[in-house]
Amino acid sequence: MSSSEVPRGLVGSSIARSDASSIHIHGLDLCNDLIGGVTITDFLALELRGELPGAAERRLLDAFMVTLAEHGTTPSTIAARLTMLGSPDQLQSAVASGLLGAGSRFLGSMSDCARLLQDPRVTEHRAPSDRAASLIEIANGSVPGIGHPLHKPEDPRSVKLFALARELDAYGPACETIVAVRQTLHERTGTRLPINATGAIAAIATDIGYEWQAVRGFALVARTVGILGHLTEERRAPMGQQIWDLVEGLGDDD
Q1: φ and ψ at 86, to 5 degrees?
Q2: SS3 annotation, 142-208
Q3: Tens of pLDDT along 166-200?
Q4: 105 pLDDT band (50/70/90 cuts)?
Q5: Contacts of 228 by beta carbon, 8 Å cutoff, 6+ apart
Q6: CB–CB of 151/159 below 8 Å?
Q7: Is the entire prediction scored with pTM above 0.70?
Q8: Is 115 exposed, middle or buried (0-12, 13-18, 19+ CB in 10 A)?
Q9: 75: left (phi over 0), alpha (psi -120 to 50) or beta
Q10: Cys bridge to 113: 51, 121, 191, 202, which one at CB 3.0-4.6 A?
Q11: Which residues pair with residue 146 across a beta bridge?
């Protein structure tokens, strides 16, 4: 049954419809309009917002994907490698295990930051300093998107992303707010913490009109690419067994 033949009384999806000779996605013909004519980043925007992005939005989304894809030997890639160790013939299981930990500490903090930046109690203020003060209060002083254990005093990724946003005329109120948050926290604590990559992406994504609920999706799509790279390496040069042996050895008596 095609999506155009949904029985009466059932709610069908408006995203894609097909018949014997064509497939349409958000009103665009898959074969004539999309295949060979758009990038996967274009398609991501199409799925999230129902329309293809302009050139500036495409460059920013591409920048998000490249920024987020690879972070080395992290909890997500370790989980993926260990899952492949136990189930080497189930690639999807290994990828999924690497994504399941996306949350407030890893991968997901950008959606938490975007949620704060888009909170009406924050956006109702005109001055960036007032928006920053309100955001910090709502977050109880612990602001996602601020701070990094390695990159200090600046996160080079954020510097690049903000520069690109300015170049593409996408540096708006949310970017101003996160910069003001950093400055306010510095004035209150005496410590100058960096805006990390997730904070920069949350702010830029907000300024180009993405709802905070969609922002974590950028991390999931991008990190899938990175996890696939690690799993390819795991097949060629396994380290899952070494990780297991290392953890097992931690409990041994001297």
Answers
A1: -80, -25
A2: CCCCECCCCCCCCCHHHHHHHHHHHHCCCCCHHHHHHHHHHHHHHHHHCCCCCECHHHHHHHHHHHC
A3: 999 999 999 999 999 999 999 999 999 999 999 99
A4: confident
A5: 95
A6: no
A7: yes
A8: buried
A9: alpha
A10: 202
A11: 195
